[in-house]
Amino acid sequence: MKRIVLGVSAGIAAYKSVLLLRLLREAGHHVDVIPTGNVVNFVGNATWEALSGNPVTSNVFDAVDTVNHVRLGQQADLVLVVPATADILARAAAGLANDLLTGTLLATRAPVVMAPAMHTEMWQHPSTAANVATLRNRGVRVIEPASGRLTGKDSGPGRLPEPEEIFAAIQDLLGEPVLAGRKVVITAGGTREPLDPVRFLGNRSSGRQGVALAQAARDAGAEVTLIATHLEVPVPHGVNVIHASSALELRDAVFEHAPGHDALIMNAAVADFRPASVENSKIKKRDEHSAPVIELVRNPDILAELVQARRSNEQLPGVIVGFAAETGDEQGTVLEYGQAKLARKGCEMLVVNEVGASLTFGQDTNTIQVLFADGRPSATASGSKIDVARVVIQELAAEINGHTTDA
User: Fold this and answer.
1) Measured at the alpha carbon of residue 124, what is the angle toward residues 173 and 40, in degrees to the nearest 5?
2) pTM for the structure as a whole
3) Is 313 one of the annotated active-site residues of the chain?
């Protein structure tokens, strides 16, 4: 049994939340319903109380002795907001806490799923799109609305999916966590190789995909250690963080913290080369025409070193996942380069994605293909980085558990 908070915001689709509540209760879950103040214009509190078996209020000043706006979020295993109107999306994205539902959203550390429902023009408005992107970047699962008949004669995207579809979409959050009791190390972000006290060689990685992997692994029940190298996004709550900067620092951190863990995901974008020497002071322009010559040396291949070291160190993770950020050329495709890298590195899984100026790095979406050393069919995923991360974590769980977990 899970403890679920079902937030209901004031839209005509609120009646579908009644049916979702019934499905959750029939599945044996404890459900606390938190309607926003105007939901009573669509469905009354008597309905929510009768079907949930729990008292229902939207007032933060009810049950003050139990500090409801904090307690409900702290106790929840899952928070759903169905339907999620444009208003609740905006308030959640802004971090407001002006009613019981938004206060609960701030207080919870449980997975949050929101199912938007609104007219097409509102769903497609740039403000709503920005709010959805913000929420997804924070790890909220925002379900895409359906397309169909809306209120009145309108039709288009913005329709709330049917309760059975929403219930099916959250099954991975309602069952036993697939990584319960497991310990996972994840690297994320881009390394920086110093030239002098001011300048460095870097890359376009924002760390979004690695942070999404950390959140997905946490939500799957794992104890997660994130080795972070220059992230542009915040670290999820409930994740242990180790900071590194250069490739050499990342290597040291991985070899120090990976032993004793079940899996290691090498998602960080690690520089292949670094300056042979680092100047102690800022490199100056001595005249208008000359330019310094920077000699580069190769950085260690951390992934290959780990696989090699594991042969004599059984404390290193039994499952190692590499990432291949590739670009195709006249000599091969992205997938061909990925397959060659998997064979060369010797890790159990390799996640391949195409990168470029407007692909993957710094973007909110990603498309991947997961390759396996044992030759089983590859897995693909496309969508927001948290959606992609969940697929990778499901495949990781299957690898750790002997391929018994459904992907």
Assistant:
1) 65
2) 0.74
3) no
